[in-house]
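B., you asked whether I could sanity-check this one before it goes into the benchmark set. Here's the sequence:
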Amino acid sequence: MGVLAIFVRDRMNDPEEFKTYSKKSALARGDHPIKALAYYGAVEVLEGPPVDGVVVVEFPDMAAARAWYDSPEYQAAKSHRVAAADYRVFLVQGL
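And here's what the prediction gave me:
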């Protein structure tokens, strides 16, 4: 397993702004080697605060994950995500 990018949405603030993020982030995928593993499916929180939504995507390595995240296309989409909702986003090395 490569590197996982995990997006935890804590609270939605602006659904219309989130629609813009969704469109732009889909375009930001480009030719980056992204494998979707979870996309806002059912969540059962066992510990910690409630979660509004989770996305998990896999990249072959940290460099590929950062290349996507730091790309101008994703950064343009990210501004809409930040305006739309409260998130925690992190990268974790898989096994």
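One thing to flag: Residues 15-28 form the longest helix (14 residues). Otherwise nothing jumped out at me.
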